[in-house]
Design goal:
The chain contains eight helices and 22 strands. Strand 3 and strand 4 form a beta hairpin. The radius of gyration is 22 Å and the shape is globular. The chain has about 400 residues and is of the alpha/beta class. Helix 4 crosses helix 5.
């Protein structure tokens, strides 16, 4: 069918309606375009579709730099100029803040939501990639919402050191997945989920905050080379930790934010990092051993029993968000401010709404294009209690 495309929606789609009024989520289109679409999924309340022909194009449309765009499911916005990608992401953040967080349009406008570009350009940034292996032993990337493996020669958003690896040129008869990683210091690791480490080291040396970080090749670290410093610096900017204050770093991982907080609160202050995953706890204890004011606690955040109430909190939950139990516990702890680091505007919006029910408000927001060519966006928000101070 032929459709006129409406606004961007979460997940890399644009939303429109059929002449009969049925909602359609369209990939590979842009707002304002007129396109011919092919329906890929039918649901009771909506359709999913791919744009297969552009009849009236947007001025923001470009030729995708990757020949697998539209087939591989890894990138949503290869057909969009980079500056326009960032505006689409900002539009999604604004929409989620009004629809899910319950903010008014005026409140969202006051936040001045924009998505900042990180250094390095839209290609060659991703430092960790997981390939899926098909039944023939060939490694590739998955199609959108599918288990189909798309054979590729290389991934264009991957770091050049990873593109040079012969992962897709060899067979992997024993593995279902192959993971590759390159560190900020240039170390490379290749491993299969069954065959184990094939090349490089199991622990890689990263660089952030002027410190070296030892992180497992299969552990969590920001995949954009500039992201760790950008996010940590923004957290410090928003929270303004003061010497002598007490801080929590929840879902602390390898300890990036704990180290930033420790430097700000100084020897008279203290930081408690909470992490559940064993590899993350081991990395945090290894990386923060020289900071006596930091305590690493292995626990789920929900079951964390704090030794003291905090002055400031960094909250960096997984994509599903912190959830009501954690947010209500934070409200009860009465910090003067929470710095919320989010990789998903929807879960962020839901948690902001829960804070809002307790009288808290979103006082500031920074957003970053840490995942160019995809629909993903990173947000760092400042939440303050009733009568709390703005940035």
């Amino acid at each position: 069918m032929i459709l006129d495309v409406g606004p961007v929606a979460p997940g890399g789609h644009c939303v429109t309606r059929t002449p009969e009024g049925q909602v359609v989520f369209v990939r590979h289109a842009l707002p304002g375009e007129r396109v011919r679409v092919e329906v890929t999924e039918e649901h009771r309340g909506y359709l999913r579709a791919d744009a297969v022909e552009v009849l009236t194009g947007s001025p923001d449309r470009v030729t995708p730099p990757c020949p697998y765009a539209g087939v591989c499911g890894g990138c949503d916005f290869q057909h969009v100029a980079p500056a326009a990608q960032r505006e689409l992401k900002a539009a999604v953040v604004r929409e989620q803040l009004t629809r899910l967080a319950g903010l008014t349009v005026a409140e969202v406008e006051a936040l001045g939501v924009r998505v900042a570009e990180l250094p390095g350009g839209p290609l060659g940034w991703r430092t960790r990639v997981r390939y899926t292996v098909n039944a023939a032993g060939q490694a590739g990337l998955l199609a959108h919402r599918s288990h189909q493996v798309v054979p590729v020669d290389r991934c264009r958003i991957a770091h050049p050191a990873l593109q040079d690896l012969p992962v897709t040129a060899r067979e992997w008869p024993d593995d279902d997945e192959v993971s590759v990683a390159v560190s900020g210091t240039g170390e490379v690791a290749v491993s299969g989920d069954r065959s184990g480490l094939v090349e490089g080291a199991e622990v890689l040396r990263e660089r952030a905050l002027g410190r070296d970080w030892l992180v497992g090749a299969d552990g969590f670290w920001q995949v954009h080379p500039a992201a760790a410093d950008a996010f940590a610096g923004t957290v410090l900017e928003l929270l303004h930790p003061k010497p002598g204050e007490r801080a929590w770093d929840l879902y602390g991982g390898a300890g990036l934010f704990a180290a930033a907080l420790a430097g700000a609160v100084g020897p008279e202050g203290s930081v408690v990092l909470v992490e559940f995953e064993r590899t993350g706890v081991e990395a945090a204890r290894r990386n923060l051993a020289d900071l006596p004011g930091v305590t690493v606690v292995r626990s789920s955040v929900e079951r964390f029993r704090p030794p003291y109430p905090p002055d400031v909190v960094v909250l960096d939950p997984p994509r599903a968000g912190a959830g009501g139990t954690v947010v209500r516990a934070l409200v009860a702890a009465r910090p003067r401010a929470v710095g919320y680091v989010s990789c998903d505007p929807a879960s962020f919006g839901r948690d902001v709404a829960t804070f809002g029910k307790a009288g808290w408000r979103l006082a500031a927001l920074r957003a970053f294009d840490a995942f160019p060519m995809t629909h993903h966006v990173e947000c760092v928000g400042l939440l303050v209690p009733p009568n709390g101070q703005d940035l």
